[in-house]
Amino acid sequence: MINGVYPTHGIFHETIEITHGITQNFEIGFYLFNALATDGRSGYVGSHIRPRISAPDKWKLPFGLSLSGEVGYQKLQYSEDDWTLEIRPIIDKTIGKFYFSLNPTIDNSLRGMNKNEGFVFSPNIKTSYTINKLVAAGLEYYGSLGPFNRFSPWKEQDEQLFIAADFDISPVWELNMGYGFGLNNSTNASILKLILGKRIDWQEKKSKQSNPKTESTRFF
User: Fold this and answer.
1) Which residues are registered as beta bridge partners of 192?
2) Fewer C-beta neighbours within 10 Å, C or N terminus of the chain?
3) Residues 191 and 214: beta-carbon distance below 8 Å
């Protein structure tokens, strides 16, 4: 263990997410994190809540724009900080068969070893190309560069790149798979991920003008 945190090698992380659309432009998500591994590392990890608001279509922006805030708890065996806050702007754009997304995320430890570090810059970037009606393939970057007032040296940053694919298997199902590798020695060298989600419209009898994404349940 390093700083009281379990090693991540050979651990399976499971996340269950339930997202409920309150209005066309506002939703709330709840996350339940679990871990499965050897050496006593299996168990409940923590829970987060995430409200998200998006820019309405009537604004006619040339790109998609939304903002989410995520706060929650995780056990100190799995994280150096047990209470954290994340502020995530989401900017995305589709140009022809290409999709681009930028998340200039800000993280903050509310309690734990990194409480005095201040706000940390953790950008995420995704780009993909639609190959056909079923598959879009691309790259996903996840980083954590350190506090805004002093970025960490490269060798201490979290730098990870995924080769990923999105499968459009159904209007109500979503599937994302990817293989990720660390770009430096401080990041996990190899990760496999799978995201499987299903949208559930609890009010199908309403008019067709109702948003089909109003309520959804996703399993990660």
Assistant:
1) 179
2) N
3) no
Residue by residue, DSSP assigns 138-177 as EEEEEEE-EETTSPPPGGGSEEEEEEEEEE---SSEEEEE
Whether 129 contacts 137, CB under 8 Å: yes
Q: 156 near 143, Cβ under 8 Å? A: no
> Which residue reads 């401080």 in tokens?
186
**For 151-209, how does the pLDDT look when each residue is reduced to its tens digit (9 = 90+)?**
999 999 999 999 999 999 898 899 999 999 999 999 999 999 999 999 888 766 454 44
The number of CA neighbours under 13 Å toward the Cβ of 33 is 14
